[in-house]
User: Fold these one by one.
Assistant:
Number 1:
Amino acid sequence: MSSPGSGMLSGFTKLCKGLAVILIGGHVVVQLLPTSVTYLALIPARTIPFGWNLITAGYIEQSVHGVVVSTLGLLFMGKLLEPIWGSKEFLKFIFIVNFLTSVCVFITAIALYYLTMQEKYLYMPLSGFHGVLAGFLVGIKQIVPDQELYLLKIKVKWLPSLMLLLSIAISFFTPESATYLPTLIFGTYIGWIYLRYLQRKPESKLRGDPSEDFAFSTFFPEFLRPIIDPIASIFHRMLCGKSEASSNPQGYTLEGAPLLGSDPIEASRRRERGARALEERLAAEKLAAGRDSEEPHIDGNDHV
């Protein structure tokens, strides 16, 4: 007999389970061998020659609560994203967001050192999967933006913004904010850059999501968008040339050539698939819970 709530705890993909094992295994390693943090975490002063820590740091959780949050976040968000993106694209997203986030965090730490001349920015061990989790939130915002969270009574599209706002607020009261805040900020931004301009859809040979609903300004309240849009357009021109996505229904352009995959129709279809997949999963979980509650209890004294 399956237990109540088993529907919620089932359906995790093999890839997500494997990555969860890596996160848990990395945490166990640094607990048993504390010196391994020197080689696996991102320590800016030692990244050269230990360049591999730009990759390994994202999979090393140094605290118990960190590995719990990262593992659960990976399993539950991956349960929604991987079936829609595909396993190959899901893994590619994790690798790219993790690596580029580490590069940005490394550059930021070096810049902070030269600005403050405090060596703590060079030698603090930075690691954790939270940068990728921030990117996952952006992916969920893209797929099911108008889905409302039952407990929080807010739409999914606001999750990345609220997460960053809460993290920034907490950073004023925690001295170790430098160990997580840059990672969350860059994880969110790199995730958006990848999904907005680079993600390729194998079934349609398309790339990116140029829809207005996924513009950078949608991370901010409505009254700030007239200020954010001109700033965001600078980065848009850097990535897509001088043309405006809104004036080119066929997609973005790069040095005058159309970028494959920036079709607004495809972006709309992607969100529809995401909403449909979420609805089907929720319906399946409710059905499983209903079956569990209706299943008769068999007592040892019952007889024919």
Note: The chain is about 60% helix and 5% strand.
Number 2:
Amino acid sequence: MSQTDPRDRLIVALDVPGVPEAEALVERIGDAATFYKIGYRLAYAGGLALAERMIGQGLKVFLDLKLHDIGNTIEEGVRSVSALGATFLTVHAYPQTMRAAVKGRGNGLKILAVTVLTSYDDADAQEAGYALPVAELVAKRAAQAAEIGIDGLVCSAAEAAGVRGLVGPDRLIVTPGIRPAGADAGDQKRVMTPGDARRAGIDHVVVGRPITGAADPRAVARAIVAEMA
């Protein structure tokens, strides 16, 4: 499928407790989506084996594992993930971690660096010990990621335009915290609608609860894709 197909731009977050629930959700969504995110909760409950099966069925998988460790551990871990056939893998945007991930990524796997979690605001960053406000911290990490050769960035849609200016047109920008108009923001503090995200130059949007918690997840997925198109 072409990367310009709007369905490729929607990544559905499979934030569910186990494989049976994930498989049922993918079946309910059907051809309305082609790209799925597996994070900690599902990955540690059989989600990696599920990812291999989904990839074998022609779906794309984003492993949102947010790796961060010593360089050798990251490099070897990323090399193992690369063998699964996933499309995206996240690491935290610390320079040493990013350099090691680039070394281990192999062919096909794209490394996304998480700048600052979308649940953080300036007060959260200060509480965590960062001297910079969120916007400045995002900019600093984005510039470092581009210099190191990371494939893309995960950031809030609110920072997307600034990040794009720092990393140029060829790197991916992937945005969580996307909420259709009228949807509950949940624990996300920096959110944007799917249409506004595309207008801001976002390559892929990650949507979880508005789809997975809907009575008709297929219809919601289709509506989001239509809004982005």
Note: The chain has one domain: 6-228.
